[in-house]
Each structure stands twice: as C-alpha cells, then as structure tokens.
Automatic annotation (TrEMBL):
<dbReference type="GO" id="GO:0043235">
    <property type="term" value="C:receptor complex"/>
</dbReference>
<dbReference type="GO" id="GO:0005886">
    <property type="term" value="C:plasma membrane"/>
</dbReference>
<dbReference type="Pfam" id="PF08515">
    <property type="entry name" value="TGF_beta_GS"/>
</dbReference>
<keyword id="KW-0418">Kinase</keyword>
<dbReference type="Pfam" id="PF07714">
    <property type="entry name" value="PK_Tyr_Ser-Thr"/>
</dbReference>
<dbReference type="InterPro" id="IPR000472">
    <property type="entry name" value="Activin_recp"/>
</dbReference>
<keyword id="KW-0732">Signal</keyword>
<dbReference type="InterPro" id="IPR000333">
    <property type="entry name" value="TGFB_receptor"/>
</dbReference>
<keyword id="KW-0812">Transmembrane</keyword>
<comment type="similarity">
    <text>Belongs to the protein kinase superfamily. TKL Ser/Thr protein kinase family. TGFB receptor subfamily.</text>
</comment>
<feature type="domain" description="GS">
    <location>
        <begin position="191"/>
        <end position="220"/>
    </location>
</feature>
<keyword id="KW-0547">Nucleotide-binding</keyword>
<dbReference type="InterPro" id="IPR008271">
    <property type="entry name" value="Ser/Thr_kinase_AS"/>
</dbReference>
<dbReference type="Pfam" id="PF01064">
    <property type="entry name" value="Activin_recp"/>
</dbReference>
<keyword id="KW-1133">Transmembrane helix</keyword>
<dbReference type="InterPro" id="IPR003605">
    <property type="entry name" value="GS_dom"/>
</dbReference>
<dbReference type="InterPro" id="IPR001245">
    <property type="entry name" value="Ser-Thr/Tyr_kinase_cat_dom"/>
</dbReference>
Length: 492
C-alpha cells in the first residue's frame, strides 16, 4: 500500500515538472506559436493554422509562412499623408476577436480582415480602404442641401402665387358668370351710359358700375363692325341703346391680360377724363367657347398714331394734345391717400397707338393690359417702370411736334428711331441704339426758330434722359406745359 502511494506521488511530480519545462522552453509569438530558447525543435500544439505572412512574420516563420492557434489576417493601412501598406500574418487566439474588428483611428486609416477556414486562407483576402473624404466634401454636402431646400421653397412660393392669381381670376370669372336669367338687373328706358356712370360715381363706390348692370349692358350690345386687331384680340364698334361703344374682345389665351386690365380699370378713383372711360366687362360663352369682353367709351378719331398720320397741328392743337395726355399719365402715376385711396399705377406700354384722340382734340390713355399697381411691386422696380413711362412719353412728344406746322413747314409722320433701326426692329436692335449708343430721335432745324417747338424739344430731352433718375415726372411736365399754354394765351 505504501509503495502504491509513493509511485502516485512520483508520477504527479513528474507531470508538474514536465509542465514547467514546457512553459519555460519557449515564448508565444505574435503568430500564436512558440519558439525555442535553447532547443532546436519547437513545440507545436495539436491544432495549428498555417498562414501567409508579409511584413508581419515571426522569427520562427519560413518561406513567408507562420503558424497560429487563432486566425490568419490580411490588413491594409495608411498613415496620414502616406501610401497604403499591405500586411498579412498570424493572430493568436487570445484577443483576436477584438483585433479582427479593428478599424484604425483618426490618424491611421486601416481595414483588417481575418479567416480560419483553411491554411493560407488570407491569400484570398483583399481588404480595401474606403475613398478618402476631401476636406470640403462635408461643406459641399451642406451647400447642396441648403440650395436644394431653397429651390424647393422657391418652387412652392411660385405655386402659391400662381394658384392665388388663378383663384383671383376664377373669383372674377364667377362674379361675371352669374346667371342673368336668375338675377336680371333692369335698366330703365331712357338711361344713358353717362347717367349710369354718374350715378355710380355719386353712390360712393368709385370703382365703376355694379356688376349686374355691367352684365346687362354687355348682353344688350349689338356688334357693328371690327375697327382694330392686336396681339390680345380684336376691337369692335358696338351699340347699346343707340350709343356707340368700343368692345375689346380678348383671345381665350389672353385671359390674364383681360383680368389685369379689368382689375386696373375698376380701381377705386381710377376714372379720369384723360383715361379711357371703362363701362363694363363680361364673359360670354358655353362649355366649348368663351369670349372675354371689355367695353369702353368709343372715340371715332382712333389712336394718336392714326390721328397724327392724317392730321397736321398748330401750336394750340399740339399743346392741347400733349397737356391732356400727360394729365392722364399724371393721374395714373399719382397715389391718392384716404379711406378710399388709389394706388400709383405704371402703364408699362405707353405709345401713340395706346393713346386715343377724343372729338374735342384731347387725349385719353388706353390699353392697360400691362399696367401694374404700386401695392403689388417692390418700390425700386415700380419706380423703374414710372421712369420708363416718362421715357416713352418723351418719344410721344417728338411724334406730335413733328406734325406741328411752323413757317409753313411740317414733317411727315414717322415713328421714333425710324432712321436708326430696321422697319421691324428686334429687341437687340433697339437696345444697341437706345442703351448702348445712347442715341435719341433728331430735331428738325426749324424747331430752333419756333419758341413752342424749341421748348417742346427741351422738354422731351429731359423726359428721355439716359439716367432714369434725371427724367422729369409727369407732374413736372404737366406744369411746364400749362405755363407754355398760358404764355401763348392758349386755354387748355
């Protein structure tokens, strides 16, 4: 019994000794193997994985091959400002789970991939570094996001404005499209248009006839003959209870122009003797066709353009035409303050074809399809339109003055710049002459020997000055023409 116990103790001691010798005979390498510290034969664990090694080979490796009880790996890394370096080798089992998830740090870009499926499996691993972000990439992304947001907001704003204007037009269409059969407005016999308009003015509305009266008038008008045609549609001479009226029939594609002109004419306090008298507006039609009517006073002399082509003037007629035309323009441009005030209005299409001549030799301004109110515009833009109107009025004065007889001489009618641009000039043709070369219509020599024409020449020069801020206002021109008339004892 004692012998058996002694043998057991000796065997246990020999096992402990062997374990101690193994632990001290070599050290674990980075590849997980052991290297000898005196023995020529390394001790190899039972399960070892062979890996390809490069730039990471332990001392006991041969032919770029290392052994490990853990993983084979391949890694690509790049220091800041350096070139990518490829490394492969062995990882010991202890801690390899965390090492295989390593992705480097802020100064070191690194991608590491591991495998254990077979010997030399890391030869098939090809880790790739992600693209390097440029320093300005984030800021560019922010800029793109900012501009995209601004673009979306702008598009939404355009849609809101578009649908608001469409809603306004549909509201006006609805007002003018009420069934007359259900709510007919009766106009007593013997009532003239002048009577109706005076009654509406005295009632205090200041914005034209009641809508049902307008619709009744429009329904009762008889179309007589076409007297004109333009980009917007046609103009007809019609009759209402024997009185002649002008009917502007808009193309269906010009509904926006009809809406704008109708809205401008019905502005509070808009009515003036030198602005074409508005009578009514109406929409006629069925589901298949629509006609947009604008009914105004009729003036048999037609436009100032037509009148000047066929008529010569004396000083009195010239001053009468010029003063009445600028009076209408002055009323348009002037803002009237009060409970029922009137906004300033810019015409934006002022020319002799858009001014009509009355039977008494005075003018009235027409065609307000491009006019804009001050309340709907930026003040800087609006002032530019006002100054553009004054430039245009200077050209109209030139057209009038050429047809004024002095010393038995008069020039034939011509459009401004007739001698400087082609017959049908393009926008670029006009821009080159007017804005780039700063040319203006020339004055006949005879103007210098006629006091009225000489002063008119000075007036128009100050209206069409190249610098818009230097141009005269309509009120200033009106006062100057009044003084000229007074000096020549001409009653306007």
């Amino acid at each position: 019994m004692l012998m058996h116990e002694l043998l057991f103790i000796l065997l246990l001691f020999s096992n402990v000794l062997e374990s101690m010798l193994l632990r001290n005979s070599g050290k674990v390498t980075a590849g997980g193997g052991k290297e000898s510290s005196g023995s020529t034969t390394p001790l190899i664990p039972e399960r070892m994985l062979l890996c390809h090694c490069y730039h990471h080979c332990p001392e006991d490796s041969t032919n770029n091959t290392c052994r490990t009880d853990g993983y084979c790996f391949t890694m690509v890394e790049e220091e800041e400002g350096g070139s990518p370096v490829l490394t492969s080798g062995c990882l010991g089992l202890v801690g390899s789970e965390f090492q295989c998830r390593d992705t480097g740090n802020a100064r070191l870009r690194r991608i590491l991939e591991c495998c254990t499926d077979q010997d030399f499996c890391n030869r098939d691993l090809h880790p790739t570094l992600p693209p390097l972000k440029r320093p300005d990439q984030d800021s560019r992304i922010h800029h793109i996001a900012l501009f995209s947001s601004m673009g979306v907001c702008f598009i939404l704003l355009v849609f809101v404005i578009y649908f608001y204007r469409r809603y306004q037009r549909q509201g006006m269409r609805a007002r003018y499209s009420m069934g007359l059969e259900q709510d007919e407005s009766f106009i007593p016999a013997g009532e003239s248009l002048k009577d109706l308009i005076e009654q509406s003015q005295s009632s205090g509305s200041g914005s034209g006839l009641p809508l049902l009266v307008q619709r009744t008038i429009a329904k009762q008008i008889q179309m007589v003959k076409q007297i004109g045609k333009g980009r917007y549609g046609e103009v007809w001479m019609g009759r209402w209870r024997g009185e002649r009226v002008a009917v502007k029939v808009f193309f269906t594609t010009e509904e926006a122009s009809w809406f704008r002109e109708t809205e401008i004419y019905q502005t509070v306090l808009m009515r003036h003797e030198n602005i074409l008298g508005f009578i009514a507006a109406d929409i006629k039609g069925t589901g298949s066709w629509t006609q947009l009517y604008l009914i105004t006073d009729y003036h048999e002399n037609g436009s100032l353009y037509d009148y000047l082509k066929s008529t010569t003037l004396d000083s009195k007629a010239l001053l009468r035409l010029a003063y009445s035309a600028v009076s209408g323009l002055c009323h348009l441009h002037t803002e009237i303050f009060g409970t029922q005030g009137k906004p300033a209005i810019a015409h934006r299409d002022l020319k002799s074809k858009n001014i009509l001549v009355k039977k008494n030799g005075t003018c009235c301004i027409a065609d307000l399809g491009l006019a804009v109110k001050f309340i709907s515009l930026n003040s800087c833009h609006f002032q530019s339109y006002i100054m553009a109107d004054m430039y245009s009025f200077g050209l109209i004065l030139w057209e009038m003055a050429r047809r004024c007889v002095s010393g038995g001489i008069v020039e034939e009618y011509q459009l401004p710049y007739h001698d400087l641009v082609p017959t049908d000039p393009s926008y670029e043709d006009m821009r080159e002459v007017v804005c780039v070369k700063r040319q203006r219509p020339s004055f006949p020599n005879r103007w210098s020997s006629d006091e009225c024409l000489r002063q008119m020449g000075k007036l128009m020069t100050e209206c069409w000055a190249h610098n818009p801020a230097s141009r005269l206002t309509a009120l200033r021109v009106k006062k100057t023409l009044a003084k000229m008339s007074e000096s020549q004892d001409i009653k306007l």
